[in-house]
């Protein structure tokens, strides 16, 4: 049997490669469409030859990779788009380029006014369980999408191209995903969640201001913060301060988080993008700024305030994509080099919810850039 296997191997054509779009010069052209879904693979049709890396090919997203395939796309109309690649076992990488040859590529920026590269890694994408990148596409420009895998797995994947869900054009990032936060889920001596005003009578009037607050101690940790399951991310900081623990079933209501950010320029409007499970009331310098999956009639000073089902808010400023939510806050007067106190009350849909969590990215935006 070993001899037969060897003979079959010798019979394979010399110089055979992987998929037809293995090389940049043979990039598969995608049609211009509002939405499209394309099945691709990092192997040939018989799963014998794997995608390769060409001489002179860049490391996509700074990763060595294991072999890439290429797609080209030329939009007829200018618009913001999202490129999303998913596979069962591969740690996919996406990178978007312009250029005419493999050794003369320019990495596209992810935002019009913010020099952030248009690439994504499944392992580090903060708000998706797969590789996902968005960028402003200009009419008549040919873009190239490189799809690679960080781990040595070669299989089929799905590439989706769709309108960008992000409803604003960022100018500068003010708060990064994974940032450090202070957080509190008030509990009694038995570890059971409790109305915070039982422990601190003026809690609801002071918790957003560390210099005035004298209630239960907040914990410190990096986002994502919560417990249980969060859509695309593993919880880094347990809201109770104990790894793997959850509040008692039927007592899973609200938690409180705060941090600060500082801009180097004056800011009149911000965009908020985040994974929020399930709803949040967001404050800037102690003043309510917006609500996500919380109705306007809900009492912010009630620890049993509940979120509504994800996706029920229909307006652009509060749209949802799985647990990723967006908000625009305008008419601000945030001064340069002055810390801004960001405070959030986080709320479950039900007191029996299996998980709670939050991670945010905040940008300064041009009001004219909001859709």
Topology:
Layout: H1 2-11, E1 28-30, E2 36-41, E3 69-73, E4 79-86, E5 92-99, E6 105-107, E7 109-111, E8 114-117, E9 119-121, E10 131-137, E11 143-149, E12 156-163, E13 170-175, E14 180-184, H2 196-199, H3 203-206, E15 219-222, E16 225-227, E17 237-238, E18 254-261, E19 270-277, E20 279-284, E21 287-292, E22 320-321, E23 324-329, E24 340-347, E25 356-365
Structure commentary:
- By secondary structure, the chain is mainly beta.
- The chain is built from 3 helices and 25 strands.
- The strands form 5 sheets. Strands 13, 16, 17, 19, 22, 23 and 25 form a 7-stranded mixed β-sheet that branches. Strands 1, 3, 5, 6, 9 and 11 form a 6-stranded mixed β-sheet that branches. A 6-stranded antiparallel β-sheet has the order 15-14-18-24-20-21, with no helix packed on it.
- A hairpin with a 2-residue loop joins strand 20 and strand 21.
- It is elongated, with a radius of gyration of 24 Å.
- 39% of the residues are buried.
- The N terminus is likely disordered.
């Amino acid at each position: 049997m070993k001899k037969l296997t060897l003979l079959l191997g010798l019979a394979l054509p010399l110089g055979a490669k992987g998929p037809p779009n293995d090389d940049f010069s043979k990039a598969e052209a995608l049609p211009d469409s509002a939405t499209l879904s394309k099945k691709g693979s990092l192997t040939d049709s018989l799963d014998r030859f794997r995608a390769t890396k060409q001489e002179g090919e860049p490391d996509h997203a700074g990763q060595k990779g294991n072999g890439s395939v290429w797609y080209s796309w030329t939009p007829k109309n200018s618009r913001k788009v999202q490129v999303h690649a998913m596979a069962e076992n591969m740690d996919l990488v996406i990178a978007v380029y312009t250029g005419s040859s493999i050794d003369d590529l320019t990495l596209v920026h992810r935002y019009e006014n913010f020099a952030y590269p248009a690439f994504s890694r499944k392992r580090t994408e903060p708000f998706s369980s797969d590789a996902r990148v968005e960028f402003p596409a200009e009419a008549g420009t040919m873009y190239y999408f490189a799809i690679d895998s960080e781990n040595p797995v070669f299989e089929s994947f799905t590439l989706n191209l769709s309108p960008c869900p992000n409803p604003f054009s960022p100018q500068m990032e003010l708060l990064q995903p994974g940032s450090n936060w202070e957080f509190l889920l008030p509990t009694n001596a038995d570890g059971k969640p409790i109305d915070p005003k039982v422990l601190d009578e003026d809690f609801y009037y002071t918790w957003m201001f560390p210099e005035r607050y004298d209630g239960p101690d907040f914990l410190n940790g990096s986002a994502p913060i919560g417990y249980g399951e969060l859509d695309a991310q593993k919880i880094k900081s347990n809201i109770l301060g104990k790894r793997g623990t959850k509040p008692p079933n039927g007592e899973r209501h609200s938690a409180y988080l705060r941090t600060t950010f500082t801009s180097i320029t004056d800011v009149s409007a911000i965009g908020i993008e985040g994974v929020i499970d399930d709803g949040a009331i967001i404050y800037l310098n102690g003043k309510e700024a917006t609500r996500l999956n919380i109705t306007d009639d809900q009492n912010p000073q009630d620890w049993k305030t509940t979120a509504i089902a994800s996706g029920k808010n229909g307006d652009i400023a509060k749209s949802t994509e799985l647990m990723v939510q967006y908000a625009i806050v305008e008419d601000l007067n945030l001064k340069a080099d002055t810390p801004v106190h960001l405070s959030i009350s986080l709320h479950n849909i039900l007191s029996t919810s299996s998980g709670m969590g939050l991670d945010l990215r905040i940008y300064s935006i041009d009001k004219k850039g909001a859709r």
